[in-house]
């Protein structure tokens, strides 16, 4: 049993790397068996279908990213600002873990598109809630609608990543955009956060 679990973990790790580099459409179970140096019979015993294996890999990546989300206990201005920027940064990191090749490959595929759409809904909700906390802390300009901003930002980030934008470019774009929604007297909290983390402004 333990050997079986170890083998499953090793295969998931291998397939994660392969799909992030090359996508899913051209990767076959034969390729996976050869790459892992296991028999096809063993592979199918562990993973009866390719779609099950790919979904497990996608979930594995997503769960790692979710585990890095900041806590939401502190309601101070500094904490709300940090939570917002951290949440957006983790989403950008997740997109670039998947990579443009994989995202472009799976979006037209009905077997996987629903998974990505669910992830987009989850992360959009996280940013909406973070923006709402910033609004409640009186950080945001009066015209800012957290729901519209979250939706627009995430659609833009997703499409940019699919089209090959770099992680650095997307981080800078999101920082500049979010900064523009903050009240002038609250922008200092953003500068403190980015300076403490040595992040580009």
Automatic annotation (TrEMBL):
Record-annotated HTH tetR-type domain positions: 5-65
GO molecular-function term, one example from the UniProt record: DNA binding
Keywords from the named record: DNA-binding
PROSITE patterns named in the record: HTH_TETR_2
SUPFAM superfamilies named among the record's database cross-references: Homeodomain-like (SSF46689)
Source superkingdom: Bacteria
DNA-binding region extent: 28-47
Pfam families tied to this protein: TetR_N (PF00440)
Protein name: HTH tetR-type domain-containing protein
UniProt lineage: Bacteria, Pseudomonadati, Bacteroidota, Bacteroidia, Bacteroidales
